[in-house]
Amino acid sequence: MKIYVSVDMEGIAGIAYKEQTTRGELLYPESRQLLTDEVNAVVEALVQAGAEEIIVKDAHATGLNFLYDRLHPSASYVLGPAVMANRFPGLDATFDGAVLIGYHAMAGTQEAILDHSWSFADIYGLELNGAPIGEIGFEALLFGLHGVPVIFVSGDDKTCAEAKRQLGSVFTYETKKATGRHSGLLKAPKRVYAEIGGVMGEAVRRRKECSAYSIPGPYEMKISYMNTSLADAHYYNETDTFRLDGRTRLLKDDDLLRLLSRTFH
Ligand SMILES: [Zn+2]
C-alpha cells in the first residue's frame, strides 16, 4: 500500500500565529520541531497501518521546513518549492490514498486559525465554477487527476469542516478549535501525537469509502485579489482571461491542470 502525505504548517498542533510559520522569525525554529514531531507521528501511524511506501511533501512556503536529521526513516521526503504542474513529485495512479496534514481553512473563513488561500498578501478569495475553493480543494483536485482520493485531513475544526464540505467522505482529526484568526483552544502536541494515529489507521482501513475528487469541466476560476494593483499586473485577452471588476480576474480553461497552473501566474 502506498500513501502520499502533503504537510502544511498552519494547522500543526501548537501553531496559531504567523510568526510561528515564517522563516527568520523568532518563533519559527520551535515550530519546525512541532512540525517534524507531528510528521513523525503520522509516518509511524501509516507504517503501523500497513503502508509500504510513503512519500511526504513539505508543502509550506519554501518547502524547506522539516528538521531533516530527525525525520522518521520509513518515508521519503519531497523538499523545496513546488511548481503547480508537478506539485507532488513521485505521485502516480498506483497510490492508494493521500493525506493532508497541518492544513488550514480558506481565506475569509470566520474563526479559523491563519485562514488564507495560498497567499496572505495577494488572494482575497478563489471560486472554481461558482463555488469557493481553498487549498484543501485544490490539493484534492491535483490528487484526483491521478485517481488518488484524499482519505484524511488534519488541522483546526474549520479545516476539518471545510474538508468534509468539499470532499464528502473523508476522515479528519482536529489539532485545535479555533476561536479567531490567531487564537483557539489548542490540544497539547503530545496528545495530538498520541491520538492522530488512531484516526489515521481507520482512514487507511476504510479508504475505499473515499473517492478521488473531481469537478467536471469546462472550468472557470474567479480570482479576487487583495487590491486593484494586483489585478492590474495581469494581461487580459478577453478570450480566456477577463477582468470582471477592480480586483477580480476570471480564467477560463478546458484543462484543469492548466487552469490551476494559470491561477497563480
Ligand atoms: Zn502554509
List keywords for this structure.
single chain; 265 residues; alpha/beta; 2 domains; five-stranded antiparallel beta sheet; 6 helices; 12 strands
Short description:
With about 260 residues, this protein is α/β, with parallel strands linked by helices.
Instruction: Please report the distance between the alpha carbons of the first and last residues.
Output: 36 Å
Strand content range = 25-35%
Small molecules in complex:
zinc ion
Helical segment count? 6
Number of distinct beta strands:
12
Helix content: 25-40%
Spatial strand arrangement across the major sheet: 3-2-1-4-7-8-9
CATH-defined fold name of the largest domain? Rossmann fold
Q: What characterizes the major β-sheet?
A: 7 strands, mixed
Which whole number gives the mean pLDDT? 96
Q: What order do the SSEs take from the amino end to the carboxyl end, as H and E?
A: EHEEEEEHEHEEHEHEEH
Q: Supply the CATH class of the largest domain.
A: Alpha Beta
Number of domains: 2
CATH superfamily of the largest domain: Dipeptide transport protein
CATH architecture verdict of the largest domain = 3-Layer(aba) Sandwich
Judging from the principal axes of the Cα atoms, what is the shape?
globular
- Cα-atom radius of gyration: 18 Å
Binding site for Zn(2+) 2: 8, 60, 104, 135
Keywords: Metal-binding, Zinc
Active site: 116
GO molecular function, one term: metal ion binding
